Amino acid sequence: MLSDLLPDRAGTSKVRRSWLLQPGRKAGHGWGMMRFLSLLVAAALAAGLAAALWVGCDRPVPVADSWSGPVQSVSFAPFRRGQSPLTKVYPTPAQIGEDLKSLVGLARGVRTYTSEEGMEVVPELAAKLGLKVTFGAWLTNETEAKGRLRNHQEIAALIKAANAHPKEIERVIVGNEVLLRRDLTPDQLIAYIRQVKAAVKQPVSYADVWAFYLKYPQVAKEVDFITIHILPFWEDEPVSIDHVDDYIVKIVDKMRAAFPGKPILIGEAGWPSLGRDRGPAVVDVVNEARFVRKMANVAAKYHFDYNIVEAFDQPWKSALENTVGAAWGILDIDRRPKFAMSGPVEQVRDWKSRAALALLLGLAATLAWGRKIQGFPARLAFALMAQILAWATVTTAFHAEAVSFRWWQDLWAPLRAALGLGASWIALRRAQAFLQDGHQAVSGGAPPPAAFGRRVGRGGVLGNAESLMIVSGLYGVVWSLLLLVDGRYRDIPDIDFSAPCLATLLLLLIRAVQARRHGGGLGAALAFDGLFSPIPVPTRRRATLLRLLAWGLVLGALMSVGSEGLALAMGEDFAKNHPALGARIPLVLRGMIDNREMVLWAVMQLVMAVPFLARRQEG
Prior knowledge:
By secondary structure, the protein is an alpha/beta fold. Helix 13 runs antiparallel to helix 17. Residues 1-27 and 445-462 have low confidence and may be disordered. Helix 3 links the parallel strand 1 (74-75) and strand 2 (109-111). It has helices spanning 14-19, 29-58, 93-102, 122-128, 145-164, 186-199, 210-215, 217-222, 244-258, 285-302, 318-325, 351-369, 376-402, 407-436, 438-443, 465-485, 498-517, 522-526, 540-569, 572-577, 581-594, 596-613; strands at residues 74-75, 109-111, 132-137, 169-176, 204-209, 226-229, 264-269, 305-308. It has 2 domains: 74-325, TIM Barrel; 392-613, no CATH class.
């Protein structure tokens, strides 16, 4: 029992009394050394267990799929940090040349999306490196005159490049997902396709999500080959990585049946390595590697023509699709390959440095604040808690930096890291107090000054601890509301919330055990009062407000899982594929729990709600 491992009413654990406090044993320097050695052993055991978990969770993951040789083609948008088509800051010819060189051996060709913005140099540079080019023109909305002018310029540049480089440019694509975005009507698009076909010798196509060719079959009649995007992650019914190969074959077969004899290019196929999950489609580096390898093998088996999206991560896309939109590259923003095409895949490249930092932080916290805790089992419990919270703190800080792509995110990242650090610091100091004095775990009252060595009133650091945890709760409620109203691209903040949630859970566990040993009730042990800060119980009015926050967290948990079902139910293709309401309802209900990341986020909110719900109303 954990209760046997923690201090009793006299502040001395049963284990310690059984062999250390034997008759005739005197306290002194030797006893102090024994206590220090006991703490060292506890710290070492906790660190060893934590290290084993780091290795077990982050070591390279075996991936059965493998591929030898380059992929057929990759989407080429060579934007670097600080560059974006949205701000009209474009890569230089020298940078484009460097990026093309980085793809030699990884891909046989590249696909571009615009005929301007510096891409004019791609055909010549790519040809020198032996890379085939699928050259594209970007078309946009024509409701304003500048849109029509832009489209005319793009088409003119496409025709000029195709005729200037008849050997280097293998084929051309007129427009990308303009029907999906509703930027142009099918007739407007067809007019541009006909204009290009009349002016160039290369095969001409238009690129869009596969369903839009079925929706507008008249477009298929105008092109020399059909370019379809198959992105299982973005489907109305997201597809698990385990089933993507079958899904790709299914879609291509459907398109071949709809347009017999028409050549098909899979113009975009890929998987993100960072960002939020969608249903059973889990985002990480391992799954991106699995997808690219599967795509190459499926294409070879069924003789598919394909292009992987994309060559490099694109931070600028975070402005449109948040984190998940920025992380589809087979190379990261620094042009480093994320994975090889065979063998195990490393999920987090810098996991060893993260582990080292977390282990050191956990050790430091244990040695600094665990000295006054009596009994080896209690010290071990504290050391384990320190390592758990060190993991959460370090993971939060590194993640905040990894998903910061814009200036305001660079400002927000330190605050996200500070939230994790603050919650961990508060929890460890309170755990120290609870383990040192079991009565405090029951009363929640102020500890002796020596326990903290600093001021603990409302103006002190610990005096503001409750406010920090309240801010964490508000953060959760607001984010869940945002996920409900606009959740397609929005990150799920389970990593940001990990430190506050774990801090709450671990403190509640310690406090509940101590309350049981010292005659306190479970309700009081689970209450917010005195959990994070040794402050007297506040007024009834404040307690009522905090209950509202608690129910806000509960509602947030329901909104979070509900947002997954709502997104599924509102999908246009989902409604077409399942016209009967009776067939849709079970799928929507299952969709609410398919996303494990979202379910975890909901559970974390419920954990945070517990102390607010259990709060005593006094005053």
